[in-house]
Amino acid sequence: MASVRQLAAGLVLALVGCYDGLRHDAVGDDGSDGGSADESDAGSDGGSDSGGVDACATPAPGPSPIRRLTQRELDNTLADLLGPESAIASVMLPGDVQPRIYDTDIASHGITEELAYAYLELAEGVSSSVDVPTLVGCSEGEACARAFVESLCPRAWRRPCTAAELDGLVAIWASSDAFDDGIRRVIEVVLQSADFLYRPEIGDLAEASDGVVPLSSYEIASRLSYLLWGSMPDDALFAAAEADALRDTAGLAEQVQRMLDDPRAGAQIVWFHEQWLGLVAIESVAKDPAQFPEFANVRAAMRTEAARFVEAVALGGGDLGDLLASPTTYVNDPLASFYGLPAPGSGDDFVEVELPADRHAGLLTKGAFLAIGANQESSSPVRRGVAIVRQVLCSSPPPPPPDVMGTIPPPSPGTTTRARFEAHESDPACSGCHGLFDPLGFAFEHFDAGGRWRDLDNGLPVDASGTLVGTDVDGSFDGAAELAGLLVGSDKVGDCYVDHLLAFAGGRLVDPFEDACTQTSLRDVQRDGASIVELVAALAQSDGFRFRRSEP
Amino acid sequence: MSIPLLRRPMHRRELLRGVGSIAIGLPLLEAMGCDRPEGGVSARVGRLVDPRAPQHALPLQRFIATTIPNGVVPSAWFPTGGELDFTTGAIMDPLPDHGLPGLAEHRDDLVILKGMWHKAASLGPEKSHNEGHSCTLTGTIMQGPPGTTADAGWTLVGPSLDQYLAGKLEEIAGAPFARKTLPLVPGASFNGTLSWDATGTAIPVISSVTGLFDELFGLASLSAAEKAALRLRRHSVLDGVIGNYEQLQTRLGASDKARLEAHLDALRAVEQRIDTEIVCDAPDAMAYPEPEGGFGGPNLATWADAMQDLLVLAFSCDVTRVATLSYRYCGGGNSYLPWLGFTEDYDTGEHHEMSHRYMDPLWDPALVLASQWFCGLTAQLIGKLKATPEGSGTLFDSVILFQGSDVATGHHTWEDMPYLLAGSGGGVLPTGRYLQLPTQTPHNALLVSLLQAFGLPDTSFGDAEPNSGALPGLLG
Questions:
Q1: Helix residue ranges per DSSP H, B250-350
Q2: Rounded to two decimals, what is the model's pTM?
Q3: Which residue of A has its CA nearest to B153?
Q4: Cα–Cα dist A350/A371, whole Å
Q5: What ipTM does this complex have?
Q6: Are B234 and B31 in contact (CB under 8 A)?
Q7: Which of A538, A512, A386 minimizes the C-alpha distance to A49?
Q8: What is the pLDDT of residues A446-497, one digit of tens each?
């Protein structure tokens, strides 16, 4: 577990320099470009490459290393297990090591003595905050304590507890002279246990075949609940697990559908997308107060705007195309006023509004994305363009060389942002890479540093035209809506989205070899026009999700 | 720019107080007055003997590593003159307008090094601030595909020197300190911490003033009997927890088992740690409020002042012997220093962005001022250590402070790193020197010498490739 941080190697489709177009390149052992297959070639096969079908005829899951609950998962779980006042992990624990993109990334889940001590303090904090008589329902005697242990253990450990385990916890209770303190000790042991903090998976070893084992219904229940809700299973899911109903596809489908209809699924889908495009950062973005005096008052609303939009698209049956192209958005009065839109008269409540479809296109024209992709005083075509290249196209531009900064002149009257950044084009040291992503950033030049529409930049007409290259949908565009129109038709974009979803769900790199079957099957689902919810459901029912590879 | 997830300290403090009222949940503390180490005099160096291991008659020694971000303008950093008759550069001048002393004030307690090469960073995948900062104390090369940024999945090889040294000091003392180290950083970001364990996992940083206060003084109100009861209770709970890990391990495959083993190792260390006690007078908590605007944000000076005070208190009470302290992220994106008269615009006022304009006469004065301000914080810390009595001298007598940087200059150069040491470490390090070493002396040699200064026999540290033994001529 030596990884510092990072995520989906499958996401890292390194550019070979910036001159050879985009190449699909797993970050290999030696990290070299390796001359792997051109992304667009892989795409044209529609994922049905020769060998792929046969190799995937039987379940071929990728590795599934044991995972520890994220702080968010921990708080959700504590709230479901012991009540909302117990959700204090984000307060008590030190900050997570910043994951590359997704908090589920196990590479950022190393353990240290300091963190183990923080878990001890967390368990003590939780146990001291519960009201024992209310929680336990009785107040004295071993029978009462045992009944509590029998109720808590299987829910906290998300599986039936053995008689020995229950006896052990009752003995913990008995180690204290006081009934309440004994109960608190039990809670502290349970909450620090590996069965609670981690998600151990063993599978049904009796049914192992070529090293692949089906997960138990209880293990599938946990996978479902943490994928779809970011929390522990509820009673209905536990009941399905107890009936062993999650190993047949009908029973699984029934639970997936039920869970996706739960409000927690919406919050989870939003959380994935917020991390995908880094939108959480909007909460701490600052803008030049002279130009944007109201910005600090609306930046939280910008996060809500994007979240409402994602939730509405996803739960309304929309697909990735809607996410990237829909002109619908959600504003309250202050945010509408900031954008220069008519105030809907709803006060602080968000209402749905339709924006001009030739200007606005989905998530990429939301204030949150645009304001993050900008400096305090001026828009940043580089930041916006790089975000598209990395997060939407899954390409990884190399870092700028250390000694060629300062090419871009600072803002000055009578110059557009675009004109300033076009200095990159005239400098051959810059143009190789910037020539790819600056034009994508120029598409958003009708949006200022705060995310507001503008016709003029510094008094001069905005030029938002450009050309998309190196993809399967290359072409010219004028403005963000036209660029989004191109991206919507791209298999590369759809494949990238699938890889992101797999990285979020799997908590690790998507490995183009080991995860090939899961990746291919989901890419096919995406290319067949699946809605976001259908794609998530397909993931939850995929072989890669229901099976694991056993290891010695 | 990633946003670190941070503790919300005010809530945490309230919670801890609530827990303390029912006598569980807080670090063990003694409210019996400050019990500073009072050893005899070491025959070896004529300084205080380490009271934790008097049988070894070792000098009492402490280590601090700190950094200034984004390199320096070398002409304003390096002294003029020879090894002993040198004159410090402009970056070491005081900044009275900002209430900060200069490193020049401590000239006779410094060893300024020239010729040091951050070779490990120069061999890294991106050759960026990330590697320069993170590998400052590891002396290892960041593992990752060449020419990629960190999102390609870099792997850091630990441990860092502070963690290694702290472990060795505990071995020598035969018991853990109340805190192994204090890693003080305003955020949990990659570019923040210097401290990594042997598996390359970042040590959780302490970012909050009130959080550090709680670490040190959170349970000052418990009686000795209450503390003894709490200790027994925690052992009982940890026994049950450890049993669960051991049980589960038997059912898992090799790599999952190894992950749980790492957690078990951590739990066993906690078992030892909870038997230690912090022996300090609790100062007035109200004197250590959380600076407004986020840790290390617009009130960075306030944050630094409070963290330095608490660090000195922790040393004084022998809570730990090792600390790391960083003030700002190095590298891209979000370091503004408006109190120096810089703008808060990325293009014209962001520290890292400005550092890339190094050698432009328009920008160099601003870069010098920024470095001077950060060095002023180090000078201020040295002053606090010197103002704290210990034995017949001061706390500073025991300290070796290392101040590094992520890069030598804003152009990501690695030769002639702006490194300095301060303090004699109990008399083992001759100071008041400007040590000009051959160019391209790998900085691993400095790490080795630091370990030797603490009496350890190590002859290498970090990766083998950039290693070249100890630094000639550093120790007396």
A1: 254-273, 300-316, 346-349
A2: 0.87
A3: A6
A4: 20
A5: 0.89
A6: no
A7: A512
A8: 999 999 999 999 999 999 999 999 999 999 999 999 999 999 999 999 999 9
